[in-house]
Amino acid sequence: MRIRLLSIPVSNQEEALNFYTKKLGFVKKLDIPVGEGNRWLTVVANEEQDGPELLLEPSPKDFEPARVYQKELYKSGLPYTQFSVESVQGEYDRLVELGVEFSLKPTVMGTAKIAVFDDTCGNYIQIVEML
Question: Entry's InterPro entries (predicted)?
Answer without folding.
Answer: Glyas_Bleomycin-R_OHBP_Dase, Glyas_Fos-R_dOase_dom, VOC_core
